[in-house]
Amino acid sequence: MSRSLILLLCCTAMACGEGAPQASARIVLDGRFADWEPVAPIGGDELDPGTGAGLGRLWVTNDEYSLLVRFQVMPELSLQADNDLELCLDSDNDATTGRSVHGIGAELCWRFGDRRGTFVSAAGDTEVEHQHVGLVTAPTVTGTEFEIGLALDAQPAGVPLFPGDTVGLVLLDGASGAVVPAAPGGARYQLRGDSPPPLAPIDIARYDASHVRLLSYNLNNHLTDPERRTALARILNAVDADVILLQEVRDTPTEEAVAYVLALLDRGQDTWYTAKVGGENTVILSSFPILRADSLGDSGGLLLRLGEGEGSGGSEGSEGSEGSEGSEGSEGSEGQDLLLLVALSMPCCDESQRRAAEADLIAGYVRDAKSGAGEFGVPEGTPIVLMGDANLVGLVRDRRTLQYGEIVDTINHGPGALPDWDDTPLADLVPRLTHRPQAFTWHGEDFPPGRLDYVLYSDAVLDLGNRFVLYTPSLPQETLEDWRLAVEDTDVVTDHLPVVADLILRGNSEQ
Ligand SMILES: [Ca+2]
Ligand SMILES: [Ca+2]
């Protein structure tokens, strides 16, 4: 039976929009929306670009974890700050209980711009934060479309957020005065008891032993905290990366940081090449020689020799201070033997000007490395990866600068240039959690969990194998045991999560 026929039957039997079951869809909270295609909007109309402000369509569905909501808004805004968007849920489907809003009785009204909500129960009003309602949002950058999840098992103020099987919803935009749905009474959504198609868990192992594994992990200056040591060791050894980027190792001298990590690694006795780059002190441990290590503001640029491995010019255990080995990058090797790796650790939070300038600097570095116009050049076809904590919490423009090479300050950083070798943008990998339909890489206080850590890569010349974000509380016990992890490990180490991407070198796989 076709999906449209099922929808038609549902609509006939139950009056469409009045609790009609939605088509089944597996939504990943990752800031991308193609996965919503099977879900019909529950309210609102297509955004009219001519009006410039307002709300568009509203979609609602659920999986086994969350009530999932997608909506459109104009103009472009950040969901995390400086907006007047409010989502109100009549979670007991009773207009006589909760706060009276546009014809519903709302148990929860979440004010996105405040990053706070009000939960109304028999005990009165309670101010709640994101963790009380299990809120996850995407994207963290500005946009005109967002997807969010609210945990089905949330118990704000000790009371279930979703006591029944039907929820009423109203989305309001204080800036434009728009309300969806426009007619009072809200949209009704009936929670599905059945799950969408099963989420295939992501195995931690490489697909193939020849793949080169990169790990990015922002340690938030906690590298040598003794209380985190065991958990960090378990994570590093389960991931077993070939190139490890550890951001924010501020207070530990490089040699000490390297020795500390090597003592944790099962492979610590192997040959490792090391460097420290950038104002945010990213420490790099690499199984491959580091031919260059350049600071790029808070981030850094690295040139690795992936071919041949040992004996090709790197100095074992070297400090790899900035540019110290810059003369070794042009020895006529094939492009696929090298990796141009930008270790992202970009300025955070309100530092939007510094972040934009650093994105420009990085885009210019990649452009010049490709053309040879700067201090060094790489052979055509050299794989390019930008990986790390991009802290993209402001304008989506910052992401476009990194991904599309769209330099904003061309006076200081030169002309923009598409960064991939076929004059296309870099691909955005968007790894997700191994066992959850979510793609956040950071979770902590004050802001909902979000995707701050990125992997952008030159897909014209590089294929990726396995990729994932490791969040140990989501792993089944059997998987934890298989990989000698403990359920609390990622929570113990820091608020960022380990991000993993495996490179498939074409020289290894397609010859
Ligand atoms: Ca999505
Ligand atoms: Ca109510």
The tally of domains stands at 2
Proportion of residues in helical segments:
10-25%
Tell the overall outline. globular
Total count of helical runs of at least 4 residues: 10
CATH 2nd-level architecture of the largest domain: 4-Layer Sandwich
Head-to-tail CA distance between termini = 45 Å
What is the CATH C level class of the largest domain, in words? Alpha Beta
Sheet of most strands: 7 strands, antiparallel
**Which spans have pLDDT < 50 for at least 5 consecutive residues?**
1-21, 309-333
The CATH homologous superfamily name of the largest domain equals Endonuclease/exonuclease/phosphatase
**pLDDT averaged over residues:** 90
Q: In angstroms, what is the radius of gyration?
A: 24 Å
- Helix- and strand-based class? alpha+beta
